[in-house]
Amino acid sequence: MLKRKIILLVVIALSLAGLYLFIHMNFQAMEYLMRTRLEKILAMILCAVSIGVSTVVFQTITHNRILTPSIMGLDSVYMFIQTIVVFLFGSGTFVIMQSDAYFFLTILLMVGFAFGLYQLLFRRGQSNLFLLLLVGLVLGTFFSSLSSFMQMIIDPNEFLLIQDSMFASFTDVNTNLLLISAVIIIVLCIYIFRYRHYFDVMSIGRDHAVNLGVPYEKIVKRMFLVIAVLVAVSTALVGPITFLGLLTANLAREFLQTFRHTYLLIAASLLSVIALLGGQLVVERIFSFSTPISVIINFVGGVYFIYLLVRESKKI
Amino acid sequence: MIVAEKLSKYFGSKKVIQDVSIEVKRGAITSFIGPNGAGKSTLLSMVSRLLKQDDGIVYLDGKDVHKQKSKDLAKTIAILRQSNVVQMRLTVRELVSFGRFPYSSGRLTDEDEQKVSEAIAYVNLEEMEDNYLNELSGGQKQRAFIAMVLAQDTDYILLDEPLNNLDMKHAVQMMKLLRKLVEDFGKTILLVIHDINFASVYSDRIVAMKDGKIVAEGPTEDIIQSDVLKSIYDLDIDVHNISCNRICVYF
């Protein structure tokens, strides 16, 4: 039953990928179009898998189905970096922003932020994940306010540069970075996937998990760091798009009705791929690039959540 | 054997366990009794490594509990706490299967499936094994959780108020089952229990706690005495011998 549902998702994802690859194909420019489209598809799959996997695991270790890793404040750190670079170096930054070094610097800063939080709160012997998240949230808000302040006082033309990076985009992904990101994301996802049976047990609660021999605190700490790296890489690659995770992780749980992370992780990744491919198709073919994909995903996600709310309230 | 030496635990500045030392014998039921807030559950949580003590050491068969691998411990000692809320949709069988995790790491063998079925049969939930937990009554849920602990098949079983939510019939069945586990399989069982007559009839030893300390400890006959109980509960309790059982009347 579960396997059949997974196969269904694979089929949908593959057909969307095929559609995306071949729609409006101009056979004279076939080679070029194929290459750019395949790159975009790869970028979407990488982003989708890292967001899907990290959100499911994050929700399991926090025992909360409405949280996403964005609560760690990584998105805000990313925006802050973008803003401060534009603020300091002006419109010449477009070149900087495209460079590989800049990509790694952003990842390094975001991961550094997460490690800092981790050191500050976990190393003192305590392991209060929620305190850590709260501090992340507060610092995230702090960075957002600083960013908005700087955005207010810079040249409007330069602001456009920042605005570009506010929304995830798959249209101008750097090919070199794509391969490196792919390696990082695949390695981390395999690492996470090896813990899938532990997550099953952890989802029935800390005390039961400890009783059953799960090194609970150790796994929570490790996963916190792994999730931070995953989110940092995917954000640096395409931009902030964590709402997607909230949508697809919940869709996966609703659709499969299971606690088994073997299936949940795969389904959330596949649903994210479907959402991104579908969203990108709509953006490119219906709106002809006039709206960013995150607007569409947020719209669909919002509608879905209202539906969930209405349905749940009817039950009571 | 479980040996605790000078255990202490603070919640904030409040000392909930003060210098408690205790030895629990193998192959017996030891009941922990005492008023609310005496520290019984906290003590059990520390013994089973769910909670780290601020002071003192717990030895399980001669080895420090906090220095052992969690996975190995899970095959030796199992604990069930009082409040068990699971938000997920789980069937009874799926829940009980978690009890085999220390052995199978998620991939159940035929032997595991066998043990799971046995555990479900012990608590009489065979007919409901495919029902979801949220469809069960409080007592049925409690029995499902106890089955999970039984499936873990450990030498030591710690149960924090196992009779919660159970009706009289199932409470008696549960205590008889625990007795059987001790007599037939040599298990060591530690209980936190509020019904003093259940403690009196079914346990080998009783440990009485009050204000984070042990105030009385010994074989059941020695503890179920009017004067001892008076010092624990501040309540006049008559003890009667009824068909070889010591029954307390305190109504």
Automatic annotation (TrEMBL), chain A:
One of its GO terms (cellular component) is plasma membrane. The keyword Cell membrane applies. It comes from the Bacteria. It is a multi-pass membrane protein. Pfam families: FecCD. GO terms for molecular function: transmembrane transporter activity. Keywords: Cell membrane, Ion transport, Iron, Iron transport, Membrane, Transmembrane, Transmembrane helix, Transport. The chain crosses the membrane at residues 6-29, 41-61, 76-95, 102-122, 128-154, 175-193, 223-251, 263-283, 289-310. Its main location: membrane. The keyword Ribosomal protein does not apply. InterPro entries: ABC_BtuC-like, ABC_transptr_permease_BtuC. It is found in: Cell membrane. GO terms for biological process: siderophore-iron import into cell. Belongs to the binding-protein-dependent transport system permease family. FecCD subfamily. PANTHER family: FERRIC ENTEROBACTIN TRANSPORT SYSTEM PERMEASE PROTEIN (PTHR30472), PETROBACTIN IMPORT SYSTEM PERMEASE PROTEIN YCLO (PTHR30472:SF19). This is Iron ABC transporter permease. It comes from Terribacillus saccharophilus.
Automatic annotation (TrEMBL), chain B:
It is found in: Cell membrane. GO terms for cellular component: plasma membrane. Gene3D superfamilies: P-loop containing nucleotide triphosphate hydrolases. Residues 2-236 form the ABC transporter domain. Coiled coil: none annotated. One of its GO terms (molecular function) is ATP hydrolysis activity. It is a peripheral membrane protein. InterPro entries: AAA+_ATPase (IPR003593), ABC_transporter-like_ATP-bd (IPR003439), ABC_transporter-like_CS (IPR017871), P-loop_NTPase (IPR027417), Siderophore_ABC-ATPase (IPR051535). GO terms for biological process: iron ion transport. Pfam families: ABC_tran. SMART domains: AAA. The keyword ATP-binding applies. Keywords: ATP-binding, Cell membrane, Ion transport, Iron, Iron transport, Membrane, Nucleotide-binding, Transport. This is Iron ABC transporter ATP-binding protein.
